[in-house]
Amino acid sequence: MVQKPGSTKKPEFLFSKEPVAYTDALAFMEGRVDDIIAHRACECVWFLEHPPIYTAGKRADEANLLAPNRFPVFAAGRGGDYTYHGPGQRVVYLMLDLRQRGRDLRKLVRQVECWVLAALSEFNVQASIHDDQIGVWVQRPQLGEQREDKIAAIGLRVRRWVSFHGLALNVEPDLDHFSGIVPCGIADKGVTSLVDLGLPVGLEEADHALLKNFDTIFGTTSETATQIPE
């Protein structure tokens, strides 16, 4: 189904059960974005995992790559600094046509943040967002005064008003893997996950929470509401 100009119908939702090589994911996104620009394909939201890797955004500082030989390192082309992807982390790539959504990248970033907040609320996780630091954070007072840990990173790129890249929600990754970088270039805050918070949540439960809240956050029309897989 090709998305017509002016349409706000449901994107195509894709789910990869096996980890996807980062280069393969980039190639897919590049091709899909070109097709959306040319109105040959509809929007796409892709749920996947990657093998353990570090990715560098456009503003990445090499000093924040603490263990360059630990995992493969890829230039991502998105915004932001270094981040980690790996098993147990839900990556969601958002290939959305902002020509139909107001041509407002800041609005899209805030929508993605609010989407994660809404999904986390399904597990009674009280999280927060900040104007000066993109991402989603959880307060950890038991670990120290004013301590905040990041539970979801967000990095987006736009080409001719079509977005790609997206978010990474820490569900049950190996948090030690983040020690090879300064995550997102922020040295005074930690990293957490749903399992680290004591919640027995897996990727499927996280997917359901995200899908349940997609239409409300992104304004999908009711007649094409997102169907949550059984």
The radius of gyration computed from the alpha-carbon positions, rounded to a whole number of angstroms, is 17 Å
Distance between the termini: 23 Å
What's the architecture, going by CATH?
2-Layer Sandwich
Structural class: alpha/beta
Counted up, domains total 1
The stretches of 5 or more residues where confidence is low (pLDDT under 50) are: 1-7, 221-230
Give a description of the structure.
- The chain is an alpha/beta fold and 230 residues long.
- It has a single domain, classed as Bira Bifunctional Protein, Domain 2 (BirA Bifunctional Protein, domain 2, 2-Layer Sandwich).
- 21% of the residues lie in helices and 27% in strands.
- The chain contains 3 helices and 11 strands.
- The chain has helices at 22-37, 105-121, 203-218, and strands at residues 12-15, 44-48, 53-56, 73-75, 82-85, 89-95, 127-130, 133-139, 148-159, 162-170, 190-191.
- Strands 1, 2, 6, 7, 8, 9, 10 and 11 form an 8-stranded mixed β-sheet that branches. A 3-stranded mixed β-sheet has the order 4-3-5, with no helix packed on it.
- Helix 2 (105-121) packs across helix 3 (203-218).
- The two termini are 23 Å apart.
- Residues 1-7 and 221-230 have low confidence and may be disordered.
List descriptors:
eight-stranded mixed sheet, 230 residues, alpha/beta, three-stranded mixed sheet, BirA Bifunctional Protein, domain 2, 21% helix
Outline of the structure:
This protein has 230 residues and is of the alpha/beta class. The protein has helices at residues 22-37, 105-121, 203-218; strands at 12-15, 44-48, 53-56, 73-75, 82-85, 89-95, 127-130, 133-139, 148-159, 162-170, 190-191.
